[in-house]
Design brief:
heterodimer; A: 270 residues; mainly beta; B: 193 residues; alpha+beta; Cyclophilin; 4 helices
């Protein structure tokens, strides 16, 4: 079974859980921007949770070369007839996933089929390209990232307090931030209250997905799956792992607010 | 030791050779990834870390400094970077002297980060020390050989960058899917014209 890309706008790539274990070589794990939505799309077609699927950050039109059944997390099952087109848009969320039963057939590099744009592992889908199932299949699944239904995103204070004015973390929590259109899989730029830096110079230090870095202009950047493994901007806070999907699901132009999260600190320090 | 969110810990980089640090931390329970930066080490977990990492970090910090035992690399380059003239002016050297000084050096991988396979190489001659560019370029081509501060590096991929461009590598990529990064911690590098 094959689908043919008619049009791809924005960034359309194959993603799975990514490739852990290469950060020391400068390669962040990458993988799906919104993991829960990748899982939902795969479950809609009976795949294992992190089977390679197509991540749509923008818009994708595909044509079926033979009739396929479409399963989505939003509408009832239906059949896409041969030569019919299916339009998948990430709006009104940020990311939508198209899963194919058996998984998207893509080369595994360093243990993952995920496209990593910055490292040129794999490449974005373009018009005319065929997308095949790794198994024999007549069923595809589409799942959107669950919308961020307003609840605040939990963050832990970052380790770089020396690099900020005393009220910096409070400023992050004070008012909502808007997701800037200048956001990609490397970083999500936020527009909102300025987070004041101290005069401490930039130091290149290790980063992590979900870290909230602050350049000199005070407008934060949240590091995404393809983040640099070290960064010169200090980290004012880090989004709790449990809230990463909700944050990255927030649509471009949407608002997010932050509140302080909690960890079982005693366990890590015992 | 400091928290970097609820899936990572950061601590001061021990004196031991980076390859030794990497080997040690990757054997700790729960650690799935590690970054060794200029002054810090970060370790990454799939779940919230539990366990006595403070004690392990202290043990690692107590290891003596040791000479890194890495591989030797001779990387072929052409010295034709856009910033050669500016560096010559800033250092009051002739362009040929800038090239000769750089080409005479033996460099050591001090840390790896920023981009896949981007190795920060220590050992740049002090006569070539210049701060990073005021305004970073929006695009530095893959393979560009660059200097900043007392370090030199090769950009493995096209990316924005603030280092000064002095040349380019002509004998292959710095990162491949098959072999990962060309340079590893402790490796020594010379540049051949």
């Amino acid at each position: 079974m094959s689908l043919v890309v008619v049009r791809a706008l924005g960034l359309v790539t194959v993603q799975d859980a990514g490739r852990a274990g290469h950060m020391h070589e400068g390669l962040a794990p990458g993988g799906a921007l919104v993991r829960a939505a990748l899982v939902a799309a795969n479950r809609a077609v009976g795949n294992a949770d992190f089977t390679p699927a197509i991540e749509v950050l923008g818009r994708l039109s595909i044509r079926a070369e033979a009739a396929v059944e479409i399963a989505t997390d939003r509408t009832p099952r239906r059949v896409l007839e041969r030569d019919a087109e299916l339009l998948i848009e990430s709006e009104p969320q940020r990311a939508t996933y198209l899963a194919i039963r058996g998984g998207v057939d893509a080369p595994r590099i360093l243990g993952s089929a995920s496209t990593h744009v910055a490292a040129q592992l794999g490449s974005a889908l373009v018009a005319g390209q065929r997308v095949s199932s790794a198994g024999a299949s007549e069923r595809v699944g589409v799942a959107s990232a669950a919308a961020n239904r307003g609840g605040a995103i939990h963050v832990l204070p970052g380790p770089d307090a020396y690099a900020f004015a005393p009220d910096a973390f409070a400023a992050l929590l004070s008012l909502p931030y808007r997701i800037s259109p200048q956001s990609d899989r490397v970083g999500t730029r936020l527009v909102g209250p300025v987070i004041a830096r101290s005069s401490a110079p930039d130091r290149s230090r290790p980063t992590v997905r979900g870290a909230i870095e602050v350049p000199r202009d005070g407008q934060p950047i949240v590091l995404g799956p393809e983040h640099p493994t070290t960064g010169g901007y200090p980290i004012v806070g880090v989004i709790c792992a449990a809230d990463l999907d909700r944050f990255f699901a927030t649509r471009i132009g949407g608002d997010v607010s932050f509140e302080v999260g909690h960890v079982a600190t005693s366990r890590a320090r015992s | 030791m400091e928290r970097l969110g609820d899936r990572a810990l950061r601590f001061a980089r021990p004196h031991a050779a980076p390859a030794r640090i990497l080997e040690a931390v990757r054997a700790w329970p729960g650690v799935i990834d590690a970054v060794i930066a200029a002054h810090d080490v970060a370790i990454y977990f799939a779940a919230e870390p539990t366990g006595d990492y403070e004690a392990r970090i202290a043990e690692l910090a107590a290891l003596p400094f040791e000479q890194a035992s890495g591989r030797e690399h001779a990387i072929r380059v052409v010295y034709d970077g856009e910033d050669l003239a500016a560096i010559a002016a800033a250092t009051r050297l002739a362009i040929d002297a800038v090239i000769a000084i750089h080409a005479a050096g033996t460099y050591e991988v001090a840390s790896i980060g920023f981009l896949p396979g981007f190795a920060y190489l220590d050992g740049l001659d002090e006569r070539l020390e210049v701060p990073r560019r005021e305004t970073p370029r929006t695009r530095v081509p893959a393979g560009a050989l660059a200097i900043a501060g007392l370090q030199t590096a090769v950009y493995p991929f096209a990316s924005p960058g603030g280092w000064h461009l002095i040349g380019r590598v002509i004998d292959g990529p710095m990162f491949t899917p098959e072999h990962g990064a060309r340079l590893a911690f402790g490796d020594r590098v010379r540049f051949l014209t």
